[in-house]
Structures are given as C-alpha cells and as structure tokens.
C-alpha cells in the first residue's frame, strides 16, 4: 500500500506561517519573560498578534473561528507552535484549553457550546480540567475517584478535593469529574460537570510549587465544598464521564507530544549552533565523536517521535480508538523529548545550565510530561496488557 505523507497545501502553508510567526513575534516575548508568562495582558497581546497573522486557534471548527485541522494537520502546526514555550499560548492551543475545546466540540450541547466553547475558542476566557485528587483519590487509577456529586432538586451538589489542576487560577470555568454512582475503586460511575469560576462552592486552596512553571495559570489545589450546579451543568450523559475522558485524553496526549516536540527541536538547534562554533582540543565540538553521537541520537529521537505521532494521529483521524498507538507514542515521546533536551544541555556545557540559554527551563518543563497524561509506567502496563490480550485472542484462548 502506498503511503503519502505530503500534507495538504493549506496545512503546509499554515505550518510555515506558524513557524515564521513564532520566530518573529513569539521568541522575543519568550526571551523577555524567560519563558514564563503570568500576565493576562501579555497573553492577550500574543493572541491578538496570532489573530492578525491568521494562525490563531487552527484546531477548532470554522464556526468558532478556526480551521478545523484534523489530528495530522495539528501535528504539523502544533510542532511549529511548540518551538517556543509561549507559542501554544499565543495560538490558543495550549493545555488544558485545547483539549477542553476538543471535548466541548465533541460532546457539549449547543447551549453549552455557545456559553463555554465560543469564548474559549476566541481566548476571551480560559478553562481547566479537574480530574486528579490527592491520595487516596484518582491519579493513575481513575477508578479511585472520591469526589462525589449527589443529586438534589434542580441539580447536583459536588464535594471533594482536586489537585494539580493546570490553569485553574484565572480560568472562567472548570470541567470537573465527580462520582455519581458507586464507590471509590468501582469501575465507571463518573460524570463531568461544567462549574463556573464564580461558583462559591469551588474554592482555590493553594498554588502548588512545581518543577515546571510555563503552563499559564499554574497548578492549583481546588476544594469543592457543597458546590451546587444545575442540571444544565452536566457535560454529556450522567455516569459516562470516564468514556468522555477518553475522547479528550487520546487526542490531548498527542497534542502534548506535538508541542513538546517543538521544544525538543529548539533544544537541538541551540546545541547544534553551539557545537558548530565552539572549538575544543583543536577541532570543532561538532567534529568530536561523542558529541556527534549526541547530535545523531537527538535527530533519531525527534524523527521517531514524529513518526509515532503521525501513526497515532492517522488512527484517530480514521475514527479508531488509537488506545495502543497513543499510549506507545506518548510514552516514547515523553522520554525521547526529555533525552533530547538533556543531551542538548550537555553539549552546551556550563552555558547549558545558565540563564543565557533557556535549556535549563526547557528541561524543567518537559520532565513532568513523563507523569501527566498517564505516567510512562501506567502506559507500559496498559500496552503490555493489550498486547497479551491480543496474543490470547489470536491463540483462541
Ligand atoms: C505538571 C502537571 C500538570 C497536571 N495537570 C493536571 C490537570 O490539569 N488536571 C488533572 O486532573 N490532573 C493533572 N495532573 C495530574 C496527573 O494527571 C497525575 O499526576 C497523573 O495521573 C499521575 O497520578 P498521581 O500523580 O496521583 O500518581 P500516582 O497515581 O500516585 O502514581 C505514582 C507513580 O506510580 C507509578 N505507576 C503508575 N501506574 C503504574 C502501574 N500500572 N504499574 C507500575 N507503576 C505504576 C508511576 O511511576 C507513577 O508516576 C498534572 C500533573 C502534573 C505533574
């Protein structure tokens, strides 16, 4: 079977324009803020520039101002945006908003889309996705979900605690996963709720100090204390929350890989530029074998990551579940991207750990990716289980 990976002309053109926009407009802002922006004014300025450049929110449908890119189209454009830590924020394709837009497009009612998706797609508001809980609650094992929503006249009351909720500070609303049936440890029985930021029952407990700092709005602990929401706040069907989470998580895993692949390429560019000019022991660093090996291994990790992303995106575009291929791609990319950034820093010597280049910042940003969106160990466990099951089915057992 012939495989043609040539992108459509419009997608290739958008990727090129995104790359130019990131280099000309975003990189100077990243340099000024050392990769970490906390100001809404800067976010709005970047997003206004992206709108003017015609590269804003390319993933959402045209009726929401985007270009309706499929997953393979996103792979090209998001990688270019990810070349800067601030590129995804500028294009409004950063986590968690991008994944939330994807899910709202797929499962929200028309009224919910008008109220939540439309302003999210324009960048007028931000959002967060609240699933993870402090121990013993939901983390790698979602069935451990302890946050509860009880049915009351006219709606639901949510009780529970969430943590590591990215972007929660300043978000206009949260998508909250709560148990509506069964007990912690039971399979299923979760529902998603749309909770407005001004709901008095949703309280910010604290900002969690973390290794990474570049995701806008930080990582927050939230308390749901007798938090009343109406029936209109239910996203999708009651008790189907875990199924919908898969609608979000498979694609969101891949878009994270795409964006961080951009940072891996950037790290490699910084390292190669340094290796080409730095002279040691009578030769260029770039001509010393062990550095050549690191440069080559970076290229291999980048190319292999891109290949696995493409395969998984193709399956998602075909309407397949992509469970195995997104797990494989996520595990490989998270580890490969970390290796690339780490080797790039090593090639640069002391310069690499200095504030004169952003490699130290990149390293801190990519390390947690081996934990969120499913840790490497959770994915390896799931990959092995599916593989053994396939083997047993093939053997007729
Ligand atoms: C920077 C960052 C941002 C995040 N943003 C969000 C967010 O916006 N919303 C949200 O809901 N959550 C968010 N999370 C939480 C994230 O989804 C969880 O951290 C993740 O699901 C792991 O859960 P846990 O931290 O409770 O680790 P645990 O579940 O306690 O797991 C601990 C470790 O156990 C190991 N492990 C896991 N499964 C297996 C297995 N099957 N076999 C062997 N070992 C295993 C892994 O090494 C894992 O790291 C974020 C986390 C981070 C670090």
TrEMBL record:
Q: Which Gene3D superfamilies match?
A: Acyl-CoA dehydrogenase/oxidase, N-terminal domain (1.10.540.10), Butyryl-CoA Dehydrogenase, subunit A, domain 2 (2.40.110.10), Butyryl-CoA Dehydrogenase, subunit A, domain 3 (1.20.140.10)
Output the SUPFAM superfamilies linked to this UniProt entry: Acyl-CoA dehydrogenase C-terminal domain-like, Acyl-CoA dehydrogenase NM domain-like
State its cofactor. FAD
Domain named Acyl-CoA oxidase/dehydrogenase middle: residues: 128-210
Q: Which InterPro entries match?
A: Acyl-CoA_dehydrogenase (IPR050741), Acyl-CoA_Oxase/DH_mid-dom (IPR006091), Acyl-CoA_Oxase/DH_mid-dom_sf (IPR046373), AcylCo_DH-like_C (IPR036250), AcylCo_DH/oxidase_C (IPR009075), AcylCoA_DH/ox_N (IPR013786), AcylCoA_DH/ox_N_sf (IPR037069), AcylCoA_DH/oxidase_NM_dom_sf (IPR009100)
Q: Which GO terms describe its biological process?
A: fatty acid beta-oxidation using acyl-CoA dehydrogenase
Q: Which GO terms describe its cellular component?
A: cytoplasm
Listed A to Z, the keywords are: FAD, Flavoprotein, Oxidoreductase
- Top EC class for this record: oxidoreductase
Looking at the record, the residues that make up the Acyl-CoA dehydrogenase/oxidase N-terminal domain are 14-123
Q: Which residues form a coiled coil?
A: none
Q: Which GO terms label this protein's molecular function in UniProt?
A: flavin adenine dinucleotide binding; medium-chain fatty acyl-CoA dehydrogenase activity
* Enzyme Commission code: 1.3.8.7
Q: Is NADP set as a keyword in this record?
A: no
Please indicate if the UniProt record lists Oxidoreductase as a keyword: yes
Task: Tell me the protein family, please.
Answer: Belongs to the acyl-CoA dehydrogenase family.
Protein name per its UniProtKB record: Acyl-CoA dehydrogenase
User: What organism does the record attribute this protein to?
Assistant: Streptomyces nymphaeiformis
């Amino acid at each position: 079977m012939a495989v043609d990976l040539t992108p459509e002309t419009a997608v290739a053109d958008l990727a090129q324009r995104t790359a130019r926009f990131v280099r000309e407009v975003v990189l100077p802002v990243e340099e000024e803020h050392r990769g970490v922006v906390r100001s809404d004014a800067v976010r709005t300025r970047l997003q206004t520039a992206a709108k003017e450049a015609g590269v804003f929110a390319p993933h959402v449908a045209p009726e929401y101002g985007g270009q309706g890119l499929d997953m393979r189209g996103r792979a090209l454009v998001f990688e270019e945006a990810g070349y800067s830590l601030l590129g995804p924020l500028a294009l409004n394709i950063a986590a968690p908003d991008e994944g939330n837009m994807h899910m709202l497009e797929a499962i929200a009612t028309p009224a919910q889309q008008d109220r939540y998706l439309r302003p999210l797609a324009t960048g007028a508001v931000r959002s967060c996705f609240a699933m993870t809980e402090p121990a013993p609650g939901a983390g790698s094992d979602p069935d451990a979900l302890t946050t509860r929503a009880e049915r009351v006249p006219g709606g639901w009351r949510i009780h529970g605690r969430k943590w590591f909720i990215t972007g929660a500070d300043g978000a206009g609303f949260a998508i909250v996963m709560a148990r509506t049936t069964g007990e912690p440890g039971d399979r299923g029985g979760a529902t998603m709720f749309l909770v407005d930021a001004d709901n008095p029952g949703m309280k910010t407990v604290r900002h969690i100090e973390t290794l990474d700092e570049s995701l806008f709005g930080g990582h927050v602990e939230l308390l749901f204390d007798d938090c009343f929401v109406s029936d209109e706040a239910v996203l999708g069907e009651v008790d189907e929350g875990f199924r919908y989470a898969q609608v979000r998580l498979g694609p969101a895993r891949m878009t994270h890989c795409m964006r961080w692949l951009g940072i891996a390429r950037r790290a490699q560019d910084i390292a190669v530029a340094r290796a080409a000019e730095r002279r040691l022991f009578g030769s260029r660093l770039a001509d010393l074998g062990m550095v050549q090996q690191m440069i080559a291994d970076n290229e291999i990790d980048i190319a292999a990551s891109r290949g696995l992303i493409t395969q998984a995106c193709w399956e998602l575009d075909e309407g397949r579940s992509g469970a195995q291929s997104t797990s494989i791609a996520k595990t490989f990319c998270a580890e490969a991207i970390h290796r690339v950034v780490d080797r790039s820093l090593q090639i640069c010597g002391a310069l690499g750990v200095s504030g004169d280049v952003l490699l130290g910042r990149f390293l801190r940003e990519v390390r947690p990716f081996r934990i969120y969106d499913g840790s490497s160990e959770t994915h390896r466990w799931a990959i092995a289980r599916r593989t053994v099951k396939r083997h047993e089915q093939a053997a007729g057992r």
